[in-house]
Write a structure and sequence with these properties.
single chain, alpha+beta, 6-stranded mixed beta sheet, 14 helices, 27% helix
Length: 685
């Protein structure tokens, strides 16, 4: 293994690109059933150099501590989902290891699994968040709806994998992880060794959609156990199918909303009931419920509301983390409800949103809002570039003039507006505060060290551009080092929101400090910045520091099979100062194309069972080259840069569903589309 610690991040490659000798391959013995008691495990005789490791062979902790739950490393007594890890088999020949796993015989007394999360007893509710103000009673008009967003696979560039190498008294772990210090701490606890004896060297995770937060720690523990037993390099590499079947997905969500409107169409009250199916052990349950409960109001003004969000444990594999951490399905539901409210009031959807948007002094989210939401500023630009008013009026004439009740009107255009609130992800956990350490060397090279490392060249280019412009050096002199745990400060999880807002602000601040010191002090100079929340944070309005975006989606229905054909997407964003417009635009276009996958083809029905291989082959990922025209525009300003990572994933599903509802002349409240096969044919009237 020739990869050196401290190598520049842009030079790090995938685990598949490394070459190995004298390797021990690791395979997992998994539960064949979703729930039951393990009575007996028959294991074939292990040849010399092969190892069978079960729960009793774990020298230290039997679990991984994640946020507010503990996930078993191995469990040889009970199983709680199909594919749960029971034991490890490791050896020098990969085919022989796989054969040994297949030859194992597991006797399990099966119990009835429970996948339902909409109605459950209290013992399965792992987190409840309530956000209540005023009274929800009578109103001039009531609008209500049921909304469902199914699970979604992260499908990162490289399937989950881990490599563990005993090296000079330490264990070096290579992992495609967003949280290297969780990997380090978990492996050290499981192997019962000091944290300093475990070094994690992350490789680029690619576009992960926050899917590599905690699961890589589980693989690293399995690989670490094998490496310790064999005193040799050990590698655990999932196949694409294994990754699809057993790793975490977006938690399915069912959301009920009920709005009361006055004579002018303004919100009198809002009721919401949000339910997440978070699978076994419910990782990040409290974070999902906390963020979704606040997202249920979004940026609308409403004095009276009752919002309850719950995370429910089930016999699915651990669900949970996905871009937005619970805000995406909730904002989808709210923007669909907004469309239905405008229809009920016979108002233009854009105007209904405008009269209900929070203004300066609003206290709907708790604390007083210091600025009016820039809704008009954003949508004026968006409606102009998308030609939304003219197109919507034309499509409405077609819809209202459609006399054939057996056919759909066929054309639709939809609008959505959402905030990406300032990052509060994982603030309830024990995660370390985000930090960066910058060093200006004698040759004027700038070294940036942080575990909040970018997964894309776009973010990396932005960081380099800031360092270059503030310090007046060439971009190639800015070096972002690989976030090895023995080289960078412990800065907690590397989520998309944390990286794009908090890390960027810290880097700017550190660069400014270096600029002030460079002509007063001798080089090299090192500056460390840590993100510290002020004591007033709990009372601040969560919309303070938010970025805002709006999107329009236009589609038509195929004349033969009525499949939606997206004709175009337009996005306008206000997210503070954008230093690299090209990089930010490229990133948003990519995210918008990916978000369409949730709308159209990424169908995975886990309502009655865990995923199967057939589900894997039916799962249709979006093809970027087949994406419709996507136009992105920014309203630049002098504010600090704000997050962009969640916006497209909240905007596009809602705008798409609003357009589809107009094209069908009926509400469309479920994504992805394929899940509707469980219910009545959506095109029947």
């Amino acid at each position: 293994m020739k990869q050196a610690a401290g190598t520049e991040l842009s030079k790090i490659v995938r685990l598949d690109d490394f070459q190995f000798e004298n390797i021990v391959h690791v395979a997992i013995l998994r539960s064949p059933v979703p729930r039951g008691v393990i009575e007996k495990i028959e294991v074939p005789k292990m040849a010399k150099g092969y190892y069978y490791l079960s729960e009793k062979d774990i020298p230290g902790s039997k679990t991984i501590d994640i946020s507010d739950t503990k996930v078993p490393v191995l469990d040889s007594k009970r199983v709680h989902y199909k594919g749960q890890a029971i034991a490890i088999i490791a050896g020098p020949d990969r085919a022989s290891v796989s054969d040994a796993v297949r030859q194992c015989n597991i006797a399990i007394t099966e119990e009835a699994p429970d996948y339902n999360f909409e109605y459950c007893n209290s013992s399965r509710i792992k987190s409840t968040e309530k956000f209540i103000s005023g009274n929800c009673g009578r109103a001039h008009r009531i609008v209500e709806g049921e909304y469902y967003m199914g699970p979604q696979d992260h499908y990162y560039p490289e399937a989950q994998a881990a490599i563990a190498i005993p090296e000079k008294g330490k264990l070096v772990v290579y992992s495609s992880t967003q949280w290297p210090f969780l990997v380090r701490d978990s492996v050290a606890a499981v192997l019962r060794t000091n944290k300093e004896n475990v070094v994690v060297r992350p490789i680029q995770a690619g576009h992960h959609l926050d899917g590599k937060l905690w699961y890589p720690a589980l693989l690293a523990c399995h690989a670490g156990m094998a490496a310790q037993a064999a005193n040799s390099l050990a590698m655990l590499r999932y196949s694409r199918i294994e990754d699809f079947l057993y790793t975490s997905k977006r938690a399915p969500a069912r959301i009920s909303m009920r709005a009361g409107l006055n004579e002018k169409g303004k919100l009198d009250f809002l009721e919401a009931r949000i339910m997440f199916n978070t699978g076994y052990k419910s990782p990040f349950a409290s974070i999902l419920t906390a963020r979704s409960s606040r997202a249920a109001l979004s940026s609308y003004s409403c004095k009276n509301f009752s919002i309850t969000s719950r995370a429910v444990e089930s016999n699915l594999p651990p669900m949970g983390a996905f871009t937005g951490f619970g805000s995406v399905p909730t904002q989808f539901a709210l923007e669909r409800l907004a469309e239905e409210c405008s229809t009920a009031c016979d108002m233009d959807p854009s105007e209904w949103r405008a009269i209900n948007m929070a203004t300066k002094g609003d206290k709907s989210q708790g604390a007083q809002l210091k600025r009016t939401i820039p809704y008009r500023q954003i949508t004026d630009r968006l409606l102009a570039i998308s030609d939304y008013p003219r197109k919507r009026s034309s499509f409405e004439l077609i819809r209202k003039g459609n006399s054939n009740l057996a056919s759909a009107p066929g054309f639709g255009i939809g609008l959505a507006f959402v905030p990406q609130m300032a990052p509060s992800i994982l603030e309830r956990s024990k995660a370390e505060a985000p930090a960066v350490e910058l060093s200006l060397a004698k040759d004027s090279s700038l070294y940036i060290k942080t575990s909040l490392a970018p997964e894309s060249k776009a973010t990396l280019e932005i960081w380099k551009a800031y360092g270059s412009s503030i310090l007046g050096i060439k971009p190639e002199k800015v070096i972002i080092t690989n976030p090895d745990t023995d080289m960078v400060p412990d800065t907690g999880p590397n989520t998309m929101s944390r990286r794009s807002t908090v890390a960027t602000k810290l880097i700017i601040s550190a660069c400014e400090s270096l600029a002030a010191k460079r002509f007063r002090e001798a080089l090299p100079i090192t500056v460390k910045k840590i993100y510290r929340k002020s004591g007033k944070t709990k009372t601040e309005n969560p919309l303070e520091g938010a970025s805002f975006g709006a999107a329009v989606a236009e589609l038509e229905l195929d004349s033969i099979d009525l499949a939606p054909i997206v004709k175009g997407i337009w996005i306008v964003v206000k997210a503070g100062h954008i230093l690299s417009t090209e990089a930010a635009m490229r990133s948003l276009k990519h995210d918008a194309a990916q978000a369409l996958g949730l709308c159209l083809g990424e169908c995975l029905d886990l309502s009655g069972a865990s995923a199967t291989e057939n589900d894997f082959w039916r799962y249709k990922l979006p093809k970027i080259m087949e994406a419709p025209p996507i136009v992105v525009d920014f309203l630049d300003d002098d504010d600090d840069p704000k997050g962009l990572g969640d916006l497209a994933y909240s905007l596009i599903p809602a705008a798409f569903a609003n357009a589809l509802s107009q094209a069908l002349d009926k509400p469309w409240n479920m994504l992805p589309m394929g899940l509707a096969e469980r219910y009545k044919n959506p095109y029947e009237h």
